[in-house]
Amino acid sequence: MGCASREADPSRLPASPCGLRRDKSALDRMPRSRHPQFEGTWEYLRRAGWIVRPFSGIMPVAVIGGSLDDIRSFCIIAHIDHGKSTLADRLIQHCGGVTDREFRDQILDSMDIERERGITIKSNTVTLAYTARDGRTYRLNLIDTPGHVDFSHEVRRSLMSCEGALLLVDASQGVEAQTVANMYLATEYDLEMVPVINKIDLPAADVERVKEEIEEDLGLDTDDVVLCSAKTGAGIEGVLEAIVQRLPPPAGDQEAPLQALIFDAQYDPYRGAVLLIRVMEGSLHPGQKILLMHTGKEYQVEEVGLLQLKRVKTERLEAGMVGYVIAGVKAVSEIAVGDTITDVEVPADEPLPGYKEAKSVVFSSIYPMSTDEYLDLTKALEKLKLNDAALTYEKDSSVALGFGFRCGFLGLLHLEVVQERLRREYDLSLILSAPSVRYRVTLTDGKEMWVDNPSLYPDPGSIDGAEEPYIKASVMMPERYLGAVMELCRDRRGENTTFTYLAVGRVELTSEMPLAEVIFDFNDRLKSVTQGYGSFDYEMIDYRPTDLVKVDILVNGEVVDALSQLVHRDKARSRALHYCERLADTIPRQQFKIAIQGAVGGDIIARKTINAYRKDVTAKCYGGDISRKRKLLEKQKKGKKRMKMVGSVEIPQSAFVAVLKTDRN
Q1: Is the dihedral of CA 451, 453, 454, 456 positive or negative?
Q2: What is the rounded distance in angstroms from the CA atom of residue 371 to the CA atom of residue 382?
């Protein structure tokens, strides 16, 4: 597929609805027998003075160049499921970035799991051309961001590469927790924000209430708020006009030393890592030697270009432009996303500010269902790591489950996404251990160690103290659920719980609580007690002292290392009892009695028993003395005892899955 554009006097060219121009007279003057309809279209367009480029839409050459005043770099930020990807779809369609034949919903979301769940996992970018009402053609660099708290690191990097943001709010749901968190992030980077109220076509839409929430909760002026419906396309023209009129153009000097921000990376099996960058200062062109300032690695640029749903090669990228760089980087893990690119010969004085490395907060062990699939799992994680730089893993082993990997994730949703991708893309059946967090343990000899795996927990006698990570949780909900949510926070060891009335009937509750209490089932319980109306966001604050114990699960007297967990002493019995109940439901009965126990050190704190199959040995006793029956029962009891000594219990794979479920159904 290709596209064509012609350099001509802009005053003579009529503007199309999507803001693209073309000179029709060249085609009208052609003889009908030689019209492109009848022979090589693209060859004839070249003869007519048109320039053919490999792009799915029609992109005028004037847009590729242009001054900084004609560029707008912006992102869309909102709470999850408020319509970011749908709005991006409408903007792309309105600007002619994709043909109707090639269009599909959530066009910037490349993974099947993103489209099925209706969420954005990876940030995506596209360059669009828009002809505004003032007659000028602008180049819009749109960056679509995730909305879930787990991927706030992606949002942060996207904000660093923009001058403005569309703050999207659902007309029926109103301002929610991640809306506030993303607005604070945008304020941190001094971005100009345009509030946009989406889904105004819904029957439950209450625009006036949402305007009041935007003023009260976010402190933004709602006099110029933009109303739209991304689903129907209503108000999209107003959104585009607000972008070009109210968002500032980028600043930068093309002659200054090169400074470019890597805000994301993709993996191409043929070209290696493709770096998505925003050029802040200077320019970038093929053949140039570049330096990554944080990692200190040097590469030679092979190709640069723009992202227009497909990669479009260009001669250079200049200050203010958003595009891609291919420089022979073999894997995404070789580079640090958020790093600064500069020129080797004329380097910048310092890297761009705001760089933060993504840190894993949730840890879990992954094992294949069958030990034969261990090598397949190894290859699958290596390939997944090429695309997902935030995923960390190291080799692990379990007596019960064999060889596997201890993995680090950004959050529970990130864990679910990785598990689902391994299952779908690599056809693997997996078992995951209970998720845990990273604890800081101080030993009696003064040394400090980090522990996220229960099997590496030191002997309690050598421990002087332990600390666990705390978060500041923010929950936004209708006022009627306040009591239930406060009780939930108290149950999860919440401290310094406060609440603020944001608007009539709407409350924000903040509480400091251990991260370990959140990763188990906090979000599910919150949705249950608030009937789906509560929204949750959190940020890491610090490490605090805790009374940490290791809970072991014993089956038939033997420790099952894959089920061990680190918990607070007050929660040890309830967590151990939960595991024992689930195992008792899933382990099949044997010819002997099976004891399932939870233990802290040498103390048994929970127990469930699976009764043995029993033959009625007294059935033949139709009378006589009771001692005859007792003798038969004692003989059976001795046989069961001998069988227990030599018999072993096979724990089915379903049992390891069952213990992670929070209810029996």
Answers
A1: negative
A2: 18
Last residue of a domain, one of 203, 223, 246: 246
Q: Are strands 362-368 and 402-409 parallel, antiparallel or unpaired?
A: antiparallel
- Does 16 fall in a domain? yes
Each residue's pLDDT tens digit, 291-330: 888 888 888 888 898 887 778 888 888 888 888 899 888 7
Task: Say yes or no: 227 and 103 in one domain.
Answer: yes
| 454 lies in the same domain as 386 | no
Strand partners, 430: 368
Q: What is the pLDDT of residues 31-54, one digit of tens each?
A: 433 444 434 444 544 444 444 433
Residue 625 φ then ψ, to 5°: -75, 150
CATH number of the domain encompassing residue 651:
3.30.70.2570
Q: Residue 406 pLDDT more than 50?
A: yes
Rg of the chain (C-alpha set): 31
Averaged pLDDT, 480-499: 88
Tell me: do 111 and 236 sit in the same domain: yes
Kindly give, in sequence order, each residue whose CB lies less than 8 Å from that of residue 536, ignoring residues fewer than 6 positions away: 149, 177, 473, 474, 475, 522, 523, 526
- Regarding whether 172 and 143 lie in a shared domain, the answer is yes
Main-chain phi, psi angles of 94, to 5 degrees: -65, -35
Query: Where a domain ends, among 212, 246, 280?
Result: 246
Between CA 87 and CA 226 the distance in angstroms is: 13
Q: What SS3 string covers 498-541?
A: EEEEEECCEEEEEEEEEHHHHHHHHHHHHHHHCCCCCEEEEEEE
**What is the Cα–Cα distance from 296 to 301, expressed in whole angstroms?**
16
| Residues 555, 604 within the same domain | yes
Say how many C-beta atoms besides its own lie within 10 A of residue 7's C-beta: 12
Percent of the chain topping pLDDT 70: 77
pLDDT at 356: 67
pLDDT one-digit tens code per residue, 348-361: 888 887 666 667 77
Residues 104 and 203 in one domain: yes
Which pTM does this prediction carry? 0.66
Number of domains in the chain: 6
Q: What residues make up the domain containing 145?
A: 69-246
> Which residues, including other chains, have CB under 8 Å from residue 8's CB and lie 6 or more apart?
21, 23
Find the mean pLDDT for residues 582-591.
80
Do 631 and 575 belong together in one domain?
yes
The secondary structure of 243-289 as a DSSP string is: HHHHSPPPP--TTSPPEEEEEEEEEETTTEEEEEEEEEESEE-TT-E
Q: In this structure, is residue 254 part of a structural domain?
A: no
Question: What residues have CB less than 8 Å from 65, skipping those under 6 apart?
Answer: none
Find the mean pLDDT for residues 61-83.
72
Q: Distance between CA 480 and CA 485 in Å, rounded? A: 10
pLDDT digits (tens, 9 = 90+) for 236-276: 888 888 888 888 888 878 888 888 888 877 778 888 888 88
Residue 82: half-sphere exposure toward Cβ, Cα within 13 Å: 31
Q: Which of 86, 77, 199 is nearest to 147 (CA)?
A: 77
**CB-based contacts of 369: which residues, under 8 Å, 6+ apart?**
429, 430, 431, 653
Distance CA 37, CA 301 (A): 40
Domain membership of residue 564 (yes or no) is: yes
pLDDT, position 18:
39
* Domain identity same for 612 and 467: no
Query: Does residue 658 register a pLDDT over 80?
Result: no
